[in-house]
Amino acid sequence: MYYIGMDGGGTKTKCVVTDEKMAVVYESKGGASNFLIQGVEKVSEMLSDIIIEAVSELKIKYEDIGGFVIGTTGAGRRNDAETLEKGIVESFYAKGIKIDKIRVESDARVALEGSFAGKPGSILIAGTGSIMFGKDKEGVIHRVGGFGRFLGDEGSGYSIGKKGLIALSKCFDGRGRETLLREIVAKTFNITDTSELITEIYKNNFDIASVTPSVIEAAQKGDPICVSILEEESEELILHLKSMYLKLNEEVMNLSLIGGTITTDNLYAKIFAAKVDELKTIKIIEPIYEPAIGAALMSKSL
């Protein structure tokens, strides 16, 4: 029996086919799978094509597939996930193929399953946004954060970038202290005054999270305003961890990290890691499996 797992998002989708022991026998890539942006029909067509290609390359039958799980951005709510599930089934049906063991999950959910190979643990995702998931010894899934940029995303690239731009706007106005961020943003984004900042944010759909590397760079050069931002945002992530620790009720909570802001070699990641180390009750570990294999693992229970 074979199992198919997919890990998708706003730019690409990875597909793996595994055997019973989770050994990868085939892998491929596809396009973006955020169906809330790309549309259900387009994403369903792309996903069904990937599976059809895998079946053809492996020279197996559809009856040999024990299950198919895709973890993707936009599937955090069950009704949204079911919409994509229906779309995928219809896409296969239109091609004369019947496949029913399909489930759509959030990208965070399959990452959690992969990180600990189905065992208890927690993951903290801090990229553009932020959210935390945990699985306790009874198999119950817990969530902390993930309220989006209007109500949450604390500790994320968006939140750091936003605070950086607020500091910059105050600097431009004379309402706040001078900051190295002014020089770095001018060089990186060619934003040099109030008018240009407002135009970029409200007219040109500026990517606020893209300012985060500039905030980190300024902090690394000793800018007190940017150092303060990183301290504040890392503390927000620590609050996520403390909340999840109480929910999982483990003596030591295993934690896997996902997202560029906290997994790359930068000052923010170092500040955060030092604070985690001080807690003593939380242990950062490397993921056992990648998210796509986590999805394949979940498909075994379908």
Key terms:
Nucleotidyltransferase, domain 5, single chain, alpha/beta, five-stranded mixed beta sheet, 302 residues, globular
Annotated CATH architecture of the largest domain: 2-Layer Sandwich
Query: So what's the overall shape?
Result: globular
Segments where pLDDT lies below 50 for 5+ residues? none
CATH class of the largest domain: Alpha Beta
Main sheet record: 5 strands, mixed
Our estimate of the beta-strand percent is 15-25%
Radius of gyration: 21 Å
Order of helices and strands: EEEHHEHEHEEEHHHHHHEHHEH
User: What is the CATH homology-level superfamily of the largest domain?
Assistant: ATPase, nucleotide binding domain
Report the structural category. alpha/beta
Overall structural domain count: 2
Number of helices: 13
Percent of residues in helical segments?
Answer: 40-55%
For this entry, what is the oligomeric state of its chains? Answer: single chain
Report how far the terminal alpha carbons are from each other: 13 Å
The third-level CATH topology of the largest domain is Nucleotidyltransferase, domain 5
Count of DSSP E strands?
A: 10
Helices, strands, pairings?
Blueprint: E1 2-8, E2 13-18, E3 24-30, H1 35-38, H2 40-58, E4 65-72, H3 78-94, E5 102-106, H4 107-115, E6 121-126, E7 130-135, E8 141-145, H5 148-151, H6 157-173, H7 181-189, H8 194-202, H9 212-220, H10 224-248, E9 253-258, H11 260-263, H12 267-279, E10 282-284, H13 291-299
Parallel strand pairs: 1-4, 4-5, 6-9, 9-10
Antiparallel strand pairs: 1-2, 2-3, 6-7, 7-8
Helix pairs in contact: 2-3, 4-13, 6-9, 6-10, 7-9, 9-10, 10-12
